[in-house]
Specification:
The complex is a heterodimer of chains A (595) and B (266). Helix content of chain A is 60%, strand content 1%. Chain A has helices at 31-36, 41-71, 81-117, 125-147, 175-204, 217-248, 272-305, 313-326, 344-370, 379-402, 404-410, 414-444, 450-477, 495-527; strands at 259-260, 263-264. The longest helix of chain A is centred in the N-terminal third of the chain and has 37 residues, at 81-117. By secondary structure, chain B is an alpha+beta fold. Chain B folds into 2 domains: 2-64 and 79-108; 115-265, Immunoglobulin-like. In chain B, the strands form 2 sheets. Chain B has a 5-stranded mixed sheet. In chain B, strands 4-10-9-6-7 form a 5-stranded mixed sheet. The termini of chain B are far apart. The chains are: A mainly alpha (595), B alpha+beta (266). At the A-B interface, α3, β1, α8, α9 and α10 of A face α1, α2, α3, β7 and β9 of B. The structure holds protoporphyrin IX containing FE and copper (II) ion (2 copies). One copper (II) ion is lined by residues 284, 287, 330, 333-334 of chain A. The site of protoporphyrin IX containing FE has 26 residues of chain A, from α2, α3, α12, α13 and α14.
């Protein structure tokens, strides 16, 4: 459907009649209801993002401690094996759930969805507010476990029973594991309140003319991820409840007859594999709950900063939806060596490798958006490029681990740790960075400092690659994951220790660069260059607000009317190199894409 | 320009690291060379794709850099190109999956002539059990585990009476004979992993799992635990010694202590 052959060339204004009435908003009456117990999705988004960043910092510090131990084993006696396990568990869980999920959906979802679809706010603002406060409570319960007797749980972020609730595991019989499970349950409750909001807002509150197929891919990514999360989190919810019952009420959902420290435990008949199935029925979609918003956002970053329409928009939308659906039937690829019926291997390897196809299409379309573009190497664009590098790298090693028999030697080694850090740790984090550099001007009215941004980018990109690329080869040797020390092990060469020390040093440098980033965030609020309403000359709706930062109700007196998709960049014949979504066809010589 | 150059460096550097770094898998000591072959095929296909993508990206960043007078071209989609790429990707993926599934089928199909040994994981050590002269491992039940009967062998099952329990020694196996490794855990999950054999499988309390392999090289190998099992996970080492047939028989004969022990528990 290129412009030339489009049947729409006679400039028909394809704007459907208003389906949704403009609603009366809740207006804050006091400072407290305006800034603290706020019902404005923008404030809630910032609250989510700030809380997620704060707890994310804890996870970052934990990663330094783990790296110190791995790089220089025996040097730091304050890191005992028990603490090492507590560190990896809390690091992993915080990063995946409390940082990435909360930041993408609660943070970006809240801030961007209403602005990008042209709504005044989320449809259920009060529930949206509750969502944040329950999330905060979940975080506080999680933090409390650091101070609980026996400390937090050290069961690994996968919390596999039986060990998760037995005495051989740190926090296994104390409050550590209980607080973790309670915190997860709270998180899911809070998320469900927010998630329903995001989905229904996208479905019901779009501005006139904002058809689904005109929505920016950012919204598509967050929307699909939220639907997935609403379907996947219940599996984690029930497994947390069942594990609590096993521990506190003496049920045996996940506990077979077993010996605990020489004594026969009181359980009988349960199945540890049942937990693994439930966990990964949540856990695999979770990977895409983090990845799809990143896919969406990075598509928009690339398009805006390469001044070119996103290539193959419809394919991109369908790829997001198909990936979302398929990701519910691949979960047992995390269980190839779990002891489940080996015949499942055929099925899950096949579904897993099929997902590679829509995923590859997305990568091609990002590249084809760069191709013939007008590439501005702004900081958001740099992070988008870094995302492609790390995502492609991690995606390709996924073909090793997904291909059941190749997974056999690699599973549970450092190869896995390297793989998932590349694909769901580093890659989405780069998108988050890019997104913050991109939208900060809309949120604050000022640009982030470019020089600090460049340093932050180069150290983070090269550093993260140097940390995680060589790590694959440790796994190839056979170094298992979740080892606080390698010990004298015949098959591990001396040089592995050198590599570990190198990785640790780079990790500390990368960590320091994040401090510069945080400083930049704080400094630029007052000292950044004023940005004006649309510094990147972007076409999507959020850049067309009457005020920057957008005011209460987002759009002033009248809601915007949308006339085109979000990707009219460098349309032949147009005076400017972009046409905002709000410009009717009759106002410009060029047609662009109406859809 | 710096960015394009760095991208080229990332692609070239990764390939160079792959070929030049000293870190590579251990020399194989089992029949699972097929797994290594599949892995190598995967390295080649993914390596080529990775390099091509990053180099193409570098080329784009250089060729289509913003400069005065340069404009992007407007091209919403290109059906043919997209279909062509989808087709090529599907082929590539199928080329990886097909050999993978064939080898997986071998991996889960135990040859009829395989002998059985049992490896039992417990916090945080390994025990082994070998069938006695009858060639059959006796029934077990965790509820029978005690200081005198560490593996919970059922004293009422005659097949178990001659079983050999190895508590304080490495597992010895004869070279060239396929073995079905029967895996059990009596407390939490464990995973018996000898990197040189390539095979591994979790041990799950309440279940019996397995893998099989044929040792192809004599020598002493370290087994590690590859499934988080609590505080001692990283120090849970075991040993497997692959020896010639006669040597194996001699070792087996010397393990008579295990037999007496089970008999005593009756
Ligand atoms: C430069 C930043 C980071 C460093 C240096 C780092 C380092 C580590 C280390 C040393 C481990 C333990 C490996 C082991 O012994 O098995 C680990 C585990 C883990 N990390 Fe990271 N990490 C970083 C960022 C992230 C991010 C952004 C995520 C988000 C997905 C993440 C998710 C995880 C998970 C899920 C685990 C597994 C925990 C477990 O085994 O239970 N990490 N990380
Ligand atoms: Cu998965
Ligand atoms: Cu273990």
């Amino acid at each position: 459907m290129t412009t030339a052959s489009s049947p729409l060339n006679g400039f028909p204004d394809r704007v459907p009649p208003a389906e949704v009435e403009d609603v009366e908003l809740y207006h804050a009456k006091s400072w407290i209801t305006r800034w603290v117990f706020s019902q404005d999705a923008k404030i809630i988004g910032i609250q989510y993002a700030t809380t997620a960043t704060a707890i994310g910092l804890v996870a970052l510090v934990l990663s330094w401690l783990m790296r110190l131990q791995l790089g220089f084993p025996g040097t730091f006696d304050f890191i005992t094996p028990a603490e090492y396990y507590q560190f990896i568990t809390m690091h992993g869980m915080i990063m995946v759930v409390y940082l990435l999920t909360a930041l993408f959906l609660g943070g970006f979802g809240n801030y961007l969805i209403p602005l990008m679809v042209g709504a005044r706010d989320m449809v259920f603002p009060y529930m949206n507010m509750l969502s944040y406060w329950i999330y905060l409570l979940a975080v506080l319960v999680l933090v409390a476990s650091f101070f609980a007797p026996g400390g937090p749980t050290g069961a690994g972020w996968t919390l596999y029973p039986p060990q998760a609730i037995l005495s051989g595991t740190p926090g296994g019989t104390g409050s550590g594991i209980i607080l973790m499970l309670v915190s997860l349950i709270l998180f899911i409750i809070g998320f469900t309140m927010g998630g329903l909001n995001y989905v229904i807002t996208v479905l019901q509150a779009r501005a006139r003319g904002m058809t689904l197929m005109r929505m920016p891919l950012t919204v598509w990514g967050i929307f699909t991820a939220t639907v997935m999360a609403l379907l996947a989190f219940p599996a984690l919810f029930v497994s947390a409840v069942m594990m609590l019952f096993d521990m506190l009420l003496g049920t045996s959902f996940f506990m077979p007859a077993l010996v605990e420290m020489g004594e026969l435990a009181k359980h009988e008949g349960g199945s540890p594999l049942l937990f693994q199935h439930l966990f990964w029925f949540f856990g695999h979609p979770e990977v895409y709950i983090v990845a799809l918003p990143a896919f969406g956002i990075v598509s928009d970053l690339i398009s805006v900063h390469a001044r070119r329409n996103i290539f193959g928009y419809r394919m991109m939308v369908w790829a997001i939806v198909i990936i979302g659906a398929l990701s519910f039937i691949v979960w047992a690829h995390h269980m190839y060596v779990s002891g489940m019926n080996p015949w499942f291997g055929f099925f899950f390897a096949t579904t897993t490798l099929i997902i590679a196809v829509p995923t590859a299409i997305k990568v091609y379309n990002w590249l084809l958006t760069l191709w013939r573009g007008d590439i501005h190497l702004t900081v958001p664009m740099l992070f988008a490029l870094a995302f492609i590098v790390t995502f492609v790298n991690g995606g390709l090693t996924g073909l090793f681990l997904g291909n059941v028999v190749v997974d056999v030697p690699l599973s549970d080694t450092m190869f896995v740790v390297a793989h998932f850090h590349m694909v769901m740790g580093v890659a989405p984090i780069f998108v988050i960075f890019g997104a913050i550099y991109h939208w900060y001007p809309k949120i604050t009215g000022r640009m982030l400092n470019e020089a600090m941004g460049q340093i932050h980018f180069w150290v983070s990109f090269l550093g993260a690659y140097l940390i995680f690329f060589p790590m694959h080869y440790l796994g190839l040797i056979g170094v298992p994951r979740r080892y606080h020390e390698l010990g004298p092990t015949s098959f591990i060469p001396e040089s592995a220790a050198t590599l570990n020390a190198f990785i640790t040093i780079v990790a500390l440098i990368v960590g320091a660069a994040q401090m510069l980033f945080l400083f930049n965030l704080a400094w630029s609020i007052r000292h950044g260059r004023p940005s004006g309403p649309n510094p990147w000359r972007a076409a999507s709706l959020e850049w067309q607000t009457p005020e920057t930062p957008p005011g209460h109700g987002n759009w002033g007196d009248t809601l915007p009317v949308v006339h085109r998709w979000a990707y009219d960049y460098n349309v032949p014949g147009a005076a400017e190199d972009f046409i905002p979504q709000t410009v009717p066809p009759s106002d410009t010589a060029a047609t662009g894409e109406h859809r | 320009m710096i960015v394009a150059a760095v991208l080229v460096l990332v692609a070239v550097g990764s390939v160079a690291f792959h070929f030049l770094s000293p870190w590579w898998w251990t020399p194989i000591a089992s029949n699972w060379g097929y797994i290594d072959d599949t892995l190598i095929v995967t390295f080649w296909i993914t390596g080529i794709v990775f390099t091509a993508i990053i180099l193409f990206m570098a080329w784009c960043v250089w060729t289509y850099r913003a400069r005065p007078g340069h404009r992007a071209s407007f091209e919403p989609e290109n059906r043919r190109l997209e279909l062509w790429l989808t087709g090529a990707t599907t082929l590539g993926v199928a080329a990886l999956l097909a050999p993978g599934l064939i080898v997986w089928n071998q991996f889960i199909t135990v040859p009829a002539e395989a002998t059985e040994v049992e490896v039992v994981g417990r916090q945080w050590l390994w025990n082994y059990r070998l069938p006695g002269p009858d060639g059959v491992l006796g029934r077990v039940d965790v509820r029978l585990v005690g200081p005198e009967n560490p593996l919970g062998v059922d004293p009422n099952d005659p097949a178990g009476a001659d079983d050999i329990v190895v508590e304080n020694d490495d597992l010895h196996l004869p070279i060239g004979k396929p073995v079905r490794v029967r895996l059990r855990a009596i407390d939490v999950l464990h995973n018996f992993y000898v990197p040189e054999f390539r095979a591994k499988m979790d041990m799950v309390p309440g279940m019996v799992t397995y893998f099989w392999f044929t040792p192809t090289r004599t020598g002493q190998f370290t087994a590690v635990c590859a499934e988080l099992c609590g505080l001692g996970h990283a120090v849970m080492r075991g040993g497997v010694v692959i020896v010639e047939e006669e040597e194996y028989r001699a070792w087996l004969a010397a393990q008579a202590g295990g037999t007496r022990r089970v008999a005593a528990a009756r």
